[in-house]
Design brief:
Length: 160
């Protein structure tokens, strides 16, 4: 049983992450777009793992594939790998200080970038520009903000 009194916070956070994913930005900034869905899923995996499954990660990645027009299954595979890694190490990560959690998130996002590069090379699809390798650092910088925002929303709804 979930401790949350308001289960909609989970779904609203996923929806907001998807909206941020498709929000128009200048083409020059496109390679710097954070992996919003991965960051939000990471929070929920670490804090309330019963809400996230491999199936949900696959489904969200599949929706991301459809929306952004990437190779079908690429984002689905990437989110499943992220989910698997975080679920395996959740018990340890949960008790890390926020700065160390941010390092773990950066490592997971770096792994995600590597998987994307390998898949694009294997399929003969053009890779993102080299500057896209900065996105794990952006995820590292955003993690404390995302964690604190979602944590305050989750705990606030629990106190009511």
């Amino acid at each position: 049983m979930s401790r949350d009194k308001n289960p909609w916070i989970f779904w609203i956070s996923i929806f907001v992450a998807m909206m941020l994913m498709v929000m128009p930005i200048a083409p020059v900034l496109q390679p710097f777009r954070p992996a919003w869905i991965a960051l939000v899923l990471a929070y929920w995996i670490i804090e309330t793992p019963e809400k996230v499954s491999m199936t949900l990660a696959f489904f969200l990645g599949w929706i991301e594939d459809l929306v952004v027009g990437s190779v079908m299954g690429e984002n689905a595979l990437r989110l499943v790998v992220i989910t698997f890694i975080l679920m395996q190490f959740r018990a340890r990560i949960r008790f890390f200080p926020l700065s160390q959690q941010a390092l773990v998130i950066a490592a997971v996002l770096l792994n995600d970038r590597l998987i994307s590069t390998v898949l694009h090379t294997f399929w003969g699809v053009p890779n993102q520009p080299a500057v896209a390798w900065v996105t794990p650092l952006i995820g590292f910088a955003l993690w404390p903000l995302i964690f604190m925002a979602l944590d305050s929303l989750r705990l606030q709804s629990w106190k009511r």
